[in-house]
Design goal:
The complex is a heterodimer of chains A (143) and B (353). With 143 residues, chain A is α+β, with helices and mostly antiparallel strands. Helix content of chain A is 33%, strand content 40%. In chain A, a hairpin with a 2-residue loop joins strand 5 and strand 6. Chain B is of the alpha/beta class and 353 residues long. Chain B contains 7 helices and 21 strands. In chain B, helix 1 packs across helix 2 and helix 4 packs parallel to helix 5. Chain B is globular and about 65 Å long. The chains are: A alpha+beta (143), B alpha/beta (353). Chains A and B meet through strand 1, strand 3 and strand 4 of A and helix 7 and strand 20 of B.
Chain lengths: 143, 353
Amino acid sequence: MRVKQISVFLENKAGRLSEVTAILAEAGINIRALSVADTSDFGVLRLIVNDNQKALEALKNNGFSVGITDVVAVEVMDKPGGLHTILDLLHKAQINVEYMYAFVQQSGSNAVMIFRFDHIEEAIKLLEENGLTVINGSKVYSL
Amino acid sequence: MDNVVRIHASSGTTGQPTVVGYTARDINTWSELMARALTAGGAGPKDIIHNAYGYGLFTGGLGVHYGAEKLGASVIPVSGGNTNRQIIIMRDFGPTILTATPSYALHLAEVAEEMGVSFENLKFKYGVFGAEPWSEQMRHEIERKLHLKAVDIYGLSELIGPGVAVECHEAQNGLHIFEDHFIPEIIDPATGKVLPYGESGELVFTSITKEAFPIVRYRTRDITSLNPEPCICGRTLVRMKKVSGRTDDMLIIRGVNVFPSQIESVLMEIEGIEPHYQLVVDREDNLDTLTVLVEINERSFSDEVKVLQQLERKISINIKEYLGVSARVKLVEPKVIARSQGKAVRVIDNRKI
């Protein structure tokens, strides 16, 4: 039920993002979703791609510091309040969201959000018990 | 230990913290030497001395303090920091002598200007500056901005602290060494051979009167030369040239001795960090700044920004705690710090002394 997300450390220098996308393009990797978190010195680029192994190798071979993190993809009703329902549920159960970002593609008629939780198992259980759809990793990469 | 009445410490000249002790007689000797030093610098019993050297384990603050009292002058023990307040004290108490590190002196000048206080209207006549290397150009800048005559003072905690040698304000040309307490020699740092007057090499000292911490032929790692010619001030004590460099990689940052290897020790203690680092030293607004670049790696990398920021903070806090110097820590990508054959380039010093 988990999705593998690739995270890359980037210095705040011109062209770093561009270099990452060049490397991924050359390796034939398709980016499904991404988010960049930044501080004044560095940024962390988070990616959901269609081929994790290949992406990891390509980036490592080019000297980037990369990691793999387990995140959760959840279907969100594509109308006002859709996201709030989920966040409210998590808040009441005191499950912390480290970060989140949207997925570009839809799953059927629903939007998709990527979540990073502190307590991933607890979170997945809670969401499913409340009738929310947690999307499998393999499905997410090819959405 | 019964006879030791004072303890001081500094990073010394070798990177390991150096702890030194003083007997009551040593303290008296030190006060004498500092009184001499202040006199050579232009001070007398009627002066008011603004002492901006740090008080504490560092020998600068208390060294000047005891010398000033021995001299019979009035000392204001401001220590370092609180710059705005120092300017107000200068304006209100009217000190005539300034003692500080050269870079802090320039910083005081800058802050004074921001506060609308002009050194032209203050009462300073002379200043005694040391604890870090500074050039003739810096002297001219200090004299111009602070409207006083500036002399260089030299010392090291292993010997006694400040008060080993001092420039006379009359000549400002070489520092008179107090040979009746410390015997100087210049050696070739590679072979150890003693060099004649006039030749540049490593300064070596032997103490004659120290009780708690006597030393014999101690290598200072400082590079200079000796000049026996009589001076226009009348002193016949041998003079050493302003120190031009060191034989090792020690840095002096805001008056604190810092060895790259010390930073390395701090990094090695933190889990996941490999010792691929670089020290970048700059001077901003006349104050030294230290930035430590540390390479991220598989183990230390995290997808969460806050974890990375915590890591930066932890390194910075540890450096401050162990070395007493504030450093900005910047995480960089792997392999960014050039690997070299042989000795790594650990330090990039952008300061123009």
